[in-house]
Amino acid sequence: MSETDRYRGLYAITDSQLCPPERILQQVEAALTGGARIIQYRDKRQQRTGCEMQVREILKLCERANALLIINDDIELALASKAHGVHLGREDATLSEARARLGPTAVIGVSCYNRLELASEAAEKGADYVAFGRFFPSRTKPDAVSADPELLASARETIRKPLVAIGGITHENGAQLIAAGADMLAVIEAVFGQPDIEAASRRLSALFSPQENNNESF
């Protein structure tokens, strides 16, 4: 897989409420079948008994689909499960700490919210991708800071790293973020909150097709 393909497409994020332990493997497999290129394992529960074993099973699904598995926040879980990398927010470990623990080949993404300077700093320090958002109202993080699509256009001109857009993204509004410069669309509810996860994943993945984007009206 080329670096361009590795970081282009649908970035599906699991959620402990939408993805209960007894269903998460089936749900992740459906998202991957629909075309997700990255799965982020995100579990904010206090008690996560058995999650390492579960993450290892998710990793098998991702590797079978030639997709990446990223762990939200938890460097030690990423290390123990042999996931491909970790995603860091402002209250998590630093990028340098994550790199030291996970090694030079690990994929490390950084949330930059609506701040271009944070993305520039992360890129300079070796982040593999930077994420901006929220771009639209989000039920997962209703109080998250708002970002404008113009931020993606500015980042595209100055940052030579893949750009991830997140926050309230759906099939109906995602194309405008791709047009603005997003390499990946990160979603939770628009995939794992849908009755047909594979179909939802396929529709979002299709936004990255030139023909599909040409059919969208902004």
Automatic annotation (TrEMBL):
Binding site for 4-amino-2-methyl-5-(diphosphooxymethyl)pyrimidine: Q40, Y41, R42, D43, K44, N72, S111, K141
One Gene Ontology CC term in the entry: cytoplasm
Pathway: Cofactor biosynthesis; thiamine diphosphate biosynthesis; thiamine phosphate from 4-amino-2-methyl-5-diphosphomethylpyrimidine and 4-methyl-5-(2-phosphoethyl)-thiazole: step 1/1
One biological process term in Gene Ontology: thiamine biosynthetic process
Molecular function as annotated in GO: magnesium ion binding; thiamine-phosphate diphosphorylase activity
Residues that bind Mg(2+): D73, D92
Keyword Lipid biosynthesis applies: no
Keywords: Magnesium, Metal-binding, Thiamine biosynthesis, Transferase
Catalysed conversion reaction: 2-(2-carboxy-4-methylthiazol-5-yl)ethyl phosphate + 4-amino-2-methyl-5-(diphosphooxymethyl)pyrimidine + 2 H(+) = thiamine phosphate + CO2 + diphosphate; 2-[(2R,5Z)-2-carboxy-4-methylthiazol-5(2H)-ylidene]ethyl phosphate + 4-amino-2-methyl-5-(diphosphooxymethyl)pyrimidine + 2 H(+) = thiamine phosphate + CO2 + diphosphate; 4-methyl-5-(2-phosphooxyethyl)-thiazole + 4-amino-2-methyl-5-(diphosphooxymethyl)pyrimidine + H(+) = thiamine phosphate + diphosphate
EC number(s) on file: 2.5.1.3
Binding site for 2-[(2R,5Z)-2-carboxy-4-methylthiazol-5(2H)-ylidene]ethyl phosphate: S138, R139, T140, G168
Required co-factors: Mg(2+)
Annotated family: Belongs to the thiamine-phosphate synthase family.
Function of the molecule: Condenses 4-methyl-5-(beta-hydroxyethyl)thiazole monophosphate (THZ-P) and 2-methyl-4-amino-5-hydroxymethyl pyrimidine pyrophosphate (HMP-PP) to form thiamine monophosphate (TMP).
Protein name: Thiamine-phosphate synthase
Annotated source species: Candidatus Thiodiazotropha endoloripes
